[in-house]
Amino acid sequence: MSKLLQTPHRCNISFLLLADSFLPISSKPSLFSTLPSRTVTYSRSSRPPLLLNRSFAPSKKFLVRAFESSSSDGKNESVDTDPESRGVKRNVDFPTGEFQFKEFGWWMTFLVKLRMLIALPWQRVPKGSVLTMKLRGQISDQLKSRFSSGLSLPQICENFEKAAYDPRISGIYLHIEPLNCGWAKVEEIRRHILNFKQSGKFIVGYVPACGEKEYYLACACDELYAPPSAYFSLYGMTVQASFLGGLFEKVGVEPQVERIGKYKSAGDQLSRKSMSTENCEMLTVLLDNIYGNWLEKVSLTKGKKIKDLENFINEGVYQVERFKEEDLITNICYDDEVISLLKDKLKLQSDKKLSMVDYRKYSKVSKWTVGLSGGKDRIAIIRASGSISRVRSPLSTPSSGIIGEQFIEKIRMIRESKKFKAVILRIDSPGGDALASDLMWREIRLLAAEKPVIASMSDVAASGGYYMAMGTAAIVAESLTLTGSIGVVTAKFNLEKLYEKIGFNKEIISRGKYAEVNAADQRPFRLS
């Protein structure tokens, strides 16, 4: 279960859209307030992606819970698809919504202490503890159960929020190792680090292995340490694409790719031998945006000029000592030495053991215990992660993407439920089945006609993921979210030459002019 903070939030929202896309921004500013962002500038491309900038802020406290189970049938109702006819106003000047830490008054402080006294055993934390979190590998946008392995973005962010207000937590010790997630998730975690610092508590980072993503997070900490043998890989950024066109040509396979939209590059890997002009343009703009954002944020955090930081990266590969000389890290220390420094911060004797609580244990502490519970009204959070398919296949697992029929059941159940006053649709999807996307969009529109619905975009909300968001009244995203709809594509393989090479023959008897469009794999889409 996840709940919005009672403390006021303000957020600056900007969107990065791929070319040939349109995004309506409007309405319901009071429901969502946790995704601040920045305005992005583009250094190259004659046709840059569209950038929109809007803001949202809350005016009412809500209790938010993540919606997991589903059932029930929906009613077929007509929906007016014009936002303005539903009272949605465009071009509204919303507040910025930046996080502001406010200390509790004496009454709330008393209640929090009382709640901690009666807390269940697994929610008890010794006073003066340090919260330790190890960020590495894949970070999921889904909530994790106590029996699940891996990291959960919602739980990471919630732990930062709870620790800021929890009087038992003195600070955070953050281990950061190679991450396997998109830049939008990294941006969101970094923002929560900065928000936590407003509490006045310390946050110390430790980086045994560090690339651009890891350093982007780590440099936001008050202090940053690395062991003498640390791997620092700040070499710059690249984007690459591979092509199988030449390979298929040699074996006699002809990929038949049909697309609408010149920037739709999904089929290029199969059909081309090199990158198209449009794909190169698009990837160049995205790379410029991400790299420019990295240089800007890091230089601002470390008090350096962007030019100086860029020169440092371009001058070569350095030993760890050079990073200390350039004030990019605080000092060179082993993990046990950093723990000794934390003891000094807390004025503990060297023979005393530092009280530490890890990420998994602290995730069990409820927001209610630390005084961050919401109001009586509930918001349902529907998390849609992964590729989109219409039905579950026999080989699919419970975590194998977005299953259209199950998603629709959740939407219908929430629409008919009186418990939920509004809905946040959290999207982290590159798209998938077009039919499933359209059916889900319809159900989202039906839901939006009865309750306020806001789409929140994570790492990616492209194609079908973007299509789903179009059914909502308002959309928020990180500045580095990849989103938009740039076309559609379909493909098949013409195996005629391959069959000739291996001596295989296949004959088809058909009725109907187009009966063999998909059935005949030894023929192209079009016959000359």
From TrEMBL:
Residues 196-348, 447-518 form the Peptidase S49 domain. Pfam families: Peptidase_S49 (PF01343). Coiled coil: none annotated. Keywords: Hydrolase, Protease, Serine protease. InterPro entries: ClpP/crotonase-like_dom_sf (IPR029045), Peptidase_S49 (IPR002142), S49_SppA_67K_type_N (IPR047217), S49_SppA_C (IPR047272). One of its GO terms (biological process) is proteolysis. One of its GO terms (molecular function) is serine-type peptidase activity. PANTHER family: PEPTIDASE S49 DOMAIN-CONTAINING PROTEIN (PTHR33209:SF1), PROTEASE 4 (PTHR33209). Belongs to the peptidase S49 family. This is Peptidase S49 domain-containing protein. The lineage of its organism: Eukaryota, Viridiplantae, Streptophyta, Embryophyta, Tracheophyta.
